[in-house]
Amino acid sequence: MPSATTSAPTPLTMDPSNLRRARHLFLLLLLSSLLSAVPASRAQEVSNSDFLFQLTPNSFLFPTSIFTPSSSSSSSSSSSSSSSSSSSSSSSSSSSSSSSSSSRLASARQSGIFPGSNGAESAGSTQAAASSGKPVNRFKTGPIRRSPSPTQPSPRPSPKTSPRPSPKPSPSPSPRPPATQPDPIPPGGGEWAGPGRGAEYLVKLPPLPPRQQFNVRRFGALGNGAKDETRAFAAAFAAACSFGRAQNLPTAVIVPQGWYAVTYLEMEGPCGPGLVFKLDGVILGPTGPFVAPARDAVLSFSSIPRLMVSGRGAVDGRGAQWWRMWEAGQLRVDRPMLMTVYRCNNSVIQGITLRNPGTIHLKISRTIGAVVINVTTTSPSDSPNTDSIHISASRGVTVKRCTLHGGDDNVVIEAGSNNVRVEDTWCIAGHGISIGSLGDMGSTACVQNVVIKNVVLMALSNGLRIKTYQGGSGSVSNVSYRNVYMVNVKRPIVIDQHYCDRNSVSHCEESSDHAVAISDVSYSNIIGTTDYTEGIYLNCSSTVPCRGVTFKDINITPSASLREPLRPRIAHVFGGIRNVVAPKLFPRQIPMGPVPLYQQAAARRMASLCRMA
Hints:
This protein is α/β, with parallel strands linked by helices and 613 residues long. The model is unreliable at 1-12, 37-163 and 165-203 (pLDDT under 50).
């Protein structure tokens, strides 16, 4: 019987093109399984890590009802369409959600400031924006990244793979510091190089030799919180200031970890080419009345150009006792502020926490060029007059990446200020971002060139507010509010030329010929909710009306607790509206013009006082 011959199995072969297709299909299946295993909130956190603020928990960032479609199918369709265009993304999202949520979602995505509902959608919209030349995301608030990340270095050609190496290699240039570690002191003299420039120069402490560092412990400070250590701090500052002035060198006052009780520290320069106040401990303010000069504060810096207050420490004003005594009418001295910066050109305050002041957390006055970055202010929402950041008679001031929580205005821009920017900032509880009050007791007040952008406002009594007294003079001009997100703000947009507080009953009635002129104010891409029926409150003067007030891409809707439609209050305003979804505005409410001649003349007369000053 012949033996059966077994032939070797024929190897399976596959066309190279089919093999590539199979690999691609396997990778797509693997990617889809990984995405389905990650929760939606976590996927958004991972894919949009560069978009998120780093100052609050991720669950506190944005309400998911605004950005999350109603079903997974709408999410997938939105992600596929967002890579082609932003308009198709909004249309595909709105087709699968309810009418109210879809309109908010479309408005948010068309604006380009908020991240999408998942990673694929965000990546697609990012690519679409990059290809169209539009800004990818105006809410990007991560660290300043001017150079490639260390985990993703820029590619460099290897000398082994170089086809034609140079016969005479040039000597390697000396390494230049990356943009995230620039020169410790900004260039130039007293003039400011433009709003926001200081944040790029002073993001890290300058390396100083030990002889230029003055630790408060060397001057007798213990850091146990029990001893009054005002003298030790004053001695350390005096030594640093005199050394820097004599040697023409920058110096640093070092406050290490610990608890330091002080009463009042007035640090006055000049102190050489720069002074660093390195705060890693906690400074405790006084708990009872004390006598101090004007501008009294726990920490007072004056006439120190190129000042830098930086660290991971805090200043605690222990203001509860001050608030109780003030409310009971038992104070015979002013409540102390927490920190003041007076005539400190080209200064930076970064990283520190200011809490529980007697009145104001941080006041910047008569300063050219200042940056407040990564600063946190915190005090109870019912604490009286605890403004977070108060800017007065200063120019070139930038507030960036801050978290501001207080009992009064989160940011105040007072008379004499111009070129002020507030961006990438959270305002939580308080009275909002205010220009004013201006023109009290018939005074002349001028504010111009203000930009408020990429901010989140939550649980505030007012959102974006301009307030002036009747009978004053001067002008507020060239103000831009854009990319603002609000949650349960009582009065989101306010212009009030009839402002009058309880402490000043004069100049509250309509003036016959005097009012602070308000012109060229723009609101763009304002989204959020309100729990008050007015929503938009524009109460301008009949003598000097508001001119050039424009609204574009506005969508402010009632909160869940408000069951009434919004009824904006608008009087004596000229400007224009475009794409105002809610509250409902009509062109006749904010006409483009013409402004009556007598009103134009009154407004020009008020504005001319600022040009003369």
